Structures are given as C-alpha cells and as structure tokens.
Amino acid sequence: xEKKTVAILFGSISSEYEVSLISASSxxxxxxxxxxQVVMLGITKDGxxxxxxxxxxxxxxxxxxxxxxxxxAVLSPDRSVGGIQRFTPHGVETVxxxxxxxxxxxxxxxxxxxxxxxxxxxxxxxxxxxLASSTCMDKxxxxxxxxxxxxxxxxxxxxxxxxxxRFEELEASLVQQLGYPxxxxxxxxxxxxxxxxxxDAQGLRTALEEAFRYDRKVLVEETxxxxxxxxxxxxxxxxxxxxxxxxxxPHHEFYDYSGKYLDxxxxxxxxxxxxxxxxxxxxxMACAAFAAMGCTGLSRVDFFxxxxxxxxxxxxxxxxxxxxxxMYPKLFEAAGIPYGELIDRLxxxxxxxxxx
Length: 356
Ligand SMILES: Nc1ncnc2c1ncn2[C@@H]1O[C@H](COP(=O)(O)OP(=O)(O)O)[C@@H](O)[C@H]1O
Ligand SMILES: [Mg+2]
Known about the structure:
This protein is α+β, with helices and mostly antiparallel strands. About 35% of the residues lie in helices and about 30% in strands. It has 11 helices and 16 strands.
C-alpha cells in the first residue's frame, strides 16, 4: 500500500502555541510510519509559515525555528497545487499532500479560520469543519446552540467592554442573575487563559479586566459545584462514539493553566468516580452535543456532574490537548484504542468526511 503524505501543522499565533508544540510532537512520534509519511509545517507566534525538517525534540522545546531546519512554505488554497508551496533560493517547489492534521489549539487553529483555508485547498483534514470549529470556539454561541438542542449548560451572561464604565449597575445585575461566586471567562480563549473566579465586587472587576485582555466579549457564569468530567468523542456527525468518562480534581481553586500544563496540581480519575447511570447519561449527552454542533473527527466534551445529579456541559474543545498524556487520548486508550491507532482513525475519518 502506498503511503499517504500527511501535513502536520503546529504552533500558530494563539495563546496556546506551546501546547500545540507538545501535542504535535506526540502526534509525530506516534503516527503509524507504515501508512503515513509526514511533512511538518510550523507557524511561528507571529504567524510566519515554515516547512520544518529538523528533529521532533526541537519542536517540543520550541527550538525548531532555525534557518538550518526551516524553509518558508505555505499550504496553498489553490486546488491545482494540492499541497504545500516551498519557497527555496532556487524557486518555488510543490509538495503534494493527501491529508492535513492541524495540531493547533485556540485562535487561528481551532476556530474555523484554518479550516476555511483547508476547505479552499480541497485537501481532507482532521477535525471539525468551519462552522463547528467556530461555533464551538465561542463559548456564548456554544451555550446558545446547546440550549437550543435541549442540552443544559451553566446560567450565564455576556459582558462587553463598554459595560465596565458603569460597573455598579453591571455588578448589581450579575449578582441578581447569577450570584457569587461567578466564573469570568473570555468568550474565545482556551487552556484557562484569562479565566477567573470572582467572590465579590472587587474580585469581579479584576476578573473582568483580566478577561478583557483576551477578548472583547466575556462570559460570566454561575459557579457549578460538582465533579468536573470529560468525555472524548470520535466520529463524523451523528455517527460517533463516546469514550470512557474521565474526572479532573484540581488542587487549585479551579482547573487553571498551571494545573493543566505546568505542575501536578490536579488529579485525574479514569474512569470518573460516578454512578454507572450518570456515566452513561454523560456519554449519551457527549454524542448528542457532538451531533448538535455538527462536529466531525474529534471533540472533547467537558461537563460538570452536579451534586444533585444534574449534568451541565461546560464546553466543547474541537482540537483538545493531544499529547500522549492528555485526557482525549487517555480516554480512548481506556476505551481500547491506543494512541497510534487513534491518529490513524482520525486520518481515516477525515477522508470519509470528505467523501460524505
Ligand atoms: N461555571 C463554572 N463553574 C465552576 N467552575 C468553572 C465554571 N466555568 C469554568 N470553571 C473552571 O474553570 C476552568 C476553565 O474554564 P473553561 O470554561 O473550561 O475554559 P477553557 O476553555 O479555558 O478551558 C474549568 O476547567 C473549571 O475548572
Ligand atoms: Mg476547559
């Protein structure tokens, strides 16, 4: 069987650049070599595109961007190119690509913009399309669409920057709707960047100011008390399967950036410590949410299992952390799909989606 050429995209301008480097390194180390050959395309923090030919370790350590290992290159939207254009001192060279795996988190990777370019290129790619990517990226839109589909989320209110000028009025209204403590988060970031918990008016003002550093639109939510659990989904549209359910117990006040990536300040339980009935309900809801949002390929659906037995969806990540120790691959590993096979399945789903 002839090997397919897969372009692995990593980096990009998002605040989750570093996470992408680690996820992409894991994918590169585990992609089945007998079936796929890879081309690596790195995007710098300031948005420059470079084909990369150096070692995987240097990606992980963010030492990849050196002239020795890189050459300016772009993925072309021109369908007659069908892949990458490399700009060498001798002229433009073309590298044909069969599939793309955008291992990019957050802005300009997971939010539909990159997916737009990939659609134009005509090359099948891993993950959600333009609409599902962008709607899942925006936490307000996700809330609205899920509620519309009968899938419950946290009570919330949207705040725009101008409202800070009349803070007392804003605060009174949020207290009335949601009550303290409140969760404050930029509508479009990930990895807990800019997320804060406010316990009083002063805390609310600080949290809002912090969140507005990242977005012009900020969500304020009621605080949900219960277990924080996640379910990985794999498939295309309705035709999808849910993984085992995993549970996160943050040691900090909540599951913040350092708990996610920098220290061991959170515990993971796979499977989650929940009654079987609740687990099954969560798995069904994860698939329902995946289908309602029109997701393809993969998504990790995050929940709160409340003390009173209720279940709320917190958010949907269309390109979740994908290092070999990340929740998404671990949940499927627990469901009997090892990491390398998971990558293979995602690449197969990308081709099937293209044909749908
Ligand atoms: N409404 C909420 N109630 C309780 N905890 C929350 C709530 N919203 C967020 N959190 C906590 O903050 C973390 C980050 O928020 P989240 O909405 O998942 O943003 P991100 O997209 O950055 O992961 C969650 O993992 C959870 O620990
Ligand atoms: Mg989250």
